[in-house]
Specification:
Length: 611
């Protein structure tokens, strides 16, 4: 039996999954062959299994570097529920717990050890691990190591240097959010040997995308949530005060909404997190403090009451919806005040000038996505260098937009880029187009170019919207590593030569009529379990209630017992024996032994009442 066949057998017997998800098999093959691996995979595509299965099948200890204690605790709980020896070494442990864990490591009783990068930097920890024999170093959320990553963390930088102290183990790095610059930076900083690099796309087709201009955020969010009553979801706000206000607004409208932010006392914050993880139908209104530690697979919606900080942050935050592969919904609101606030925060921060420049460019890229004149998914994937056909599952594809021929405007903008050597930023180019003889424009003689003043039919605000759409359409691009210079893409050259036309959103280049307001039509996303009949839904409710009871009893997230997808499959198949229960999606040997009889009793009782 090949290593991959052994991995497939373990996938069924331990995790209860019939086969690998797309892309997992080739990554696992490389890992099982002993190669260093860097994998970029969409959230919810099963990244963790790419180091968990090799850890189970192989010898030695697998170290997993993880940024948050909550994330470690939940992953360890899931592994243990599946019968895998795992633990986490972090500051939440007592002295006695730490000593017992060190004994387990030294005795070789663990397959996986989750650890924060700060703890891994300690010489004492490195000596313990080196003596135990580290076979693999897995770096989760690997974008944290890159200065270009949206969540850069200085403590990750040392991961490249400590590998020798650990015995030069195999390195496996994984992330869902890394553009081209970030990927190159990760490879350079982390790997001492040339890794196999896998980029398996960024698409999450089960997630519906919608982005709208802000026009009464509380009302807009409440209307969105009306389509999701009884479902679990997240609403993101930009400040702590906003989370409290929005949670109160939603609670006043009958939603079970609770706030979560870093300014809350630890007891309240932990209680609210446990409520969200253990119970159904809870809406968490949170700042980005509610971040990477959340691995709840049955989040059915994510809404942004305020604009995210970057395209990467947007992608990661909406990626917390629908990790079980079932339909999920998103809504993001944005406005000029959001842009102004973020730019002010950047300018007032203690970051270097270079990092401030990068952050400003990220804001510009996000605005471009919000103003995109084409399919949201196409625009989002293009940011990461990926391509897609129109998706049919976003507000633009479903509701349409009113467009105007913007070919001439695009050619003027592209001409300004071309005639200035494609070396300048947006504001300089707009000054040229609008005939604004700024000091920089005149110093470079750009007031004498043929394009100077040719775009005076549009205001600077309108030109910014046009540039945003050119970027979103892939007609022009921005080099974040070279002072935000704009340059012409292959598609842009076709436009400049008159071989291709460009459509722009009319609402971006025409002043709206006074008092006019457009309300976008929205189609509700199918709820998870919607394929069940009335009896099936009633049974699903009973199964969920039992799951909640068990989760509270064990003080673990509900999905550690069973995720929604497993319960839906159970309600549809209605197994009557242990063997039949073992064929349900997501039920491996350990979970069958621990929970099988409990859920079989509910299924039999339901069948008896229905008879």
């Amino acid at each position: 039996m090949s290593d991959l066949d052994r991995a497939r057998a373990a996938l069924r017997s331990i995790f209860g999954f019939e086969d690998f998800r797309p892309g997992q098999d080739e990554i696992l093959s490389a890992v099982l062959d002993g190669e260093d691996v860097f994998a970029v995979m969409p959230t919810g595509s099963g990244k963790s299994l790419c180091y968990q299965l090799p850890a189970v099948l192989g010898d030695g200890l697998t170290i997993v570097v993880s940024p948050l204690i909550a994330l470690m605790a939940n992953q360890v709980a899931q592994l243990r529920a599946n019968g895998i020896s795992a633990a986490a070494l972090n500051s939440s442990l007592t002295w006695d717990e730490t000593r017992a864990l060190r004994d387990d490591v030294a005795a070789g009783r663990l397959k996986l050890l989750y650890i924060a990068p700060e703890r891994l930097m300690m010489a004492e920890t490195q000596r313990l691990l080196a003596a135990a024999g580290v076979a693999r170093l897995a770096v989760d959320e690997a974008h944290c190591i890159s200065q270009w990553g949206h969540d850069f963390r200085k403590e990750y930088l040392a991961l490249g240097d400590i590998q020798e102290a650990l015995g030069a183990p195999q390195v496996i790095a994984l992330t869902a959010t890394a553009d081209v610059a970030t990927r190159s930076d990760i490879v350079a900083r982390l790997f001492r040997r040339e890794p196999r690099v896998f980029v398996h796309g960024f698409d999450r087709p089960n997630i519906r995308l919608a982005i709208r201009r802000k026009d009464g955020a509380g009302t807009q969010i409440a209307a969105f949530l009306e389509e999701h009553r009884g479902e679990s979801g997240i609403v993101y706000c930009s400040t702590r005060a906003r989370t409290e206000e929005m949670a109160a607004t939603l609670a006043g409208r009958g939603f079970r909404a609770i706030a979560y932010h870093a300014g809350m006392d630890m007891e309240t914050r932990a209680r609210n997190l446990d409520t969200f993880l253990q119970e159904d139908g809870v809406v968490v209104v949170a700042t980005i403090a509610f971040g990477m530690g959340i691995d709840k697979p049955d989040v059915r919606f994510v809404a942004h009451a305020d604009m995210p900080k970057s395209v990467e942050a947007y992608y990661q935050e909406i990626g917390r919806a629908g990790r079980d592969g079932l339909p999920a919904d998103t809504l993001t609101l944005y406005g000029l005040e959001d842009v102004k606030r973020y730019r002010q925060w950047i300018d007032q921060s203690e970051a270097s000038d270079e990092q401030k420049r990068v952050e400003h460019q990220r804001i510009g890229a996000l605005v471009s996505l919000c103003e995109a004149p084409r399919c949201r998914r196409q625009a989002l994937l293009a940011y990461f260098g990926d391509r897609s056909e129109p998706c049919g599952n976003c507000d633009v594809c479903q509701d349409g937009i009113v467009g105007v021929d913007g070919t001439v405007a695009a050619q003027k903008a592209l001409s300004a880029m071309y005639r200035t050597g494609q070396r300048f930023g947006r504001e300089h180019l707009i000054a040229i187009l609008t005939g604004d003889a700024t000091d920089q424009v005149t110093a470079r003689g750009h007031d004498r170019l043929p394009t100077f003043g040719v775009g005076q039919e549009f205001s600077k605000v309108q030109w910014r919207a046009i540039f945003a759409q050119l970027y979103a359409a892939g007609i022009a691009d921005i080099d974040m590593t070279e002072h935000g210079r704009w340059f012409i893409t292959e598609d842009g050259r076709e436009v400049l030569k008159g071989r291709r036309t460009v459509e722009l959103r009319r609402d971006a280049v025409e002043a709206p009529a006074k008092g006019s307001r457009k309300t976008a039509r929205r189609q509700a996303t199918a709820s998870a379990g919607a394929e069940l009949d009335a009896d099936g839904q009633a049974l699903l409710d009973l199964l969920k209630a039992e799951r909640t009871r068990l989760a509270r009893e064990r003080n673990v997230p509900a999905y550690v017992i069973f995720p929604d997808r497993t319960l839906i499959d159970m309600a549809g198949k209605r197994p009557g024996t242990r063997a039949e229960m073992g064929a349900v999606h997501g039920i491996g040997a350990a979970k069958l032994a621990e929970f099988g009889d409990t859920f079989l009793a509910i299924l039999r009782g339901f069948a008896d009442r229905a008879a």
